[in-house]
Amino acid sequence: MKALRPYKVLATACLTTALFLTGCTNEQDALSNKTEAKPTVANESQSKQTNTASTSSKVPEQLQKPLKIASINQFSIGTFSSQYISGVKKQVEEFGGEVQVYNADNDLSKMAAYVETAVNQQVDGILIDHGRADAIAPSVKKAVAAGIPVVAFDSDINIPGVTVIDQDDYSLSWNALRSMAQDLNGKGEIVYVWVGGFTPMERRNVMYEAFKKRYPSIKEIARFGTATQNTALDTQSQMEALLQKYPKKGDIDAVFAPWDEFAKGVTRAIQQAGRDEIKVYGIDLSDEDLQLMQEANSPWVSTAATDPADVGKLQVRFLYQKVAGEETPQIYSVQPHLVEKEDLPKSNVSMDEIGKYVEGWGKSDAGTSPWMENLSKDNKK
């Protein structure tokens, strides 16, 4: 893999400055108003200090029986979600447990009802995927009151005792945007594909607003985006219409698509139109995304991402630690990575192989306890 560009090394410093210059403080204030408890915050580099896991290799008594886990998802759209769910299932099965997956089809009231169903069924643990606190927090509080451990992913829930993990959406967004700014040399016309109403998308938009102030010569000429069961296809149709509105080469320099379903749609529209001068910068990654990026005429040049399966496994490990009575952080951010097309080989690679080309990819050992290895061995017998 070639040497990293200087701007990648500086991304973290720029991100920190941008967060203080934008509305992130307001978001934190809003969260702190909901509870006076001070959350334990961690990331991968801090996991050893904040996660006080047992040093014993003996499987805890609470885990001597198979656990029944409920995995409740706001939606299951695209390959990122499917690979995340696959990671959840694989880790639960490795630990000898059973997992029931509930898909709310982007209906938050249904999602809240699923949480209450899990509470009534007296499951051993609940995993939450996305969802908004204003809709599901009351149901999650019932789970906590019933003594059921809860671990959430990409949610704005802020309830004492509930661990919330995320992909560090601020870093994801800034890494992708900084890559685009560097390639554009700080000047150009771009399209922004975005939709509100989802915690990670709202956080990514915070960085986009900071980006516009940091690079005033990069102009947004169009914005669109919807989240449906056919997001990629709908996005493709919308991008095709936009390309007809801006038919000349040079009208559009790049597209920022902070969700891989958006990135897939705009990429295919650009490919079919033969507008290879337009570059796409995305967020999230899956096997399908990788194949699309590696196509010879693909305009998708970079994406900031974490390994969705690895995130699912981490969420399960935190849940098992909670069941075992171990302390887990209230907030944990997974380290994201910038994956660039030019760093990948000409031959197709899968998500299992990408670690050869992106340092640190899929190697999180957070949320691990010595007894987990024995728990896995016991269930292989």
UniProtKB/TrEMBL annotation:
It is found in: Cell envelope. Residues 35-60, 361-381 are annotated as: Disordered. The keyword Signal applies. InterPro entries: Bact_Solute-Bind_Prot2, Peripla_BP_I, SBP_2_dom. Keywords: Signal. One of its GO terms (cellular component) is outer membrane-bounded periplasmic space. Residues 74-327 form the Periplasmic binding protein domain. Transmembrane segments: none annotated. Coiled coil: none annotated. Residues 1-23 form the signal peptide. One of its GO terms (molecular function) is carbohydrate binding. Residues 42-59 have a biased composition (Polar residues). The keyword Membrane does not apply. It comes from the Bacteria. Belongs to the bacterial solute-binding protein 2 family. This is LacI family transcriptional regulator. The lineage of its organism: Bacteria, Bacillati, Bacillota, Bacilli, Bacillales.
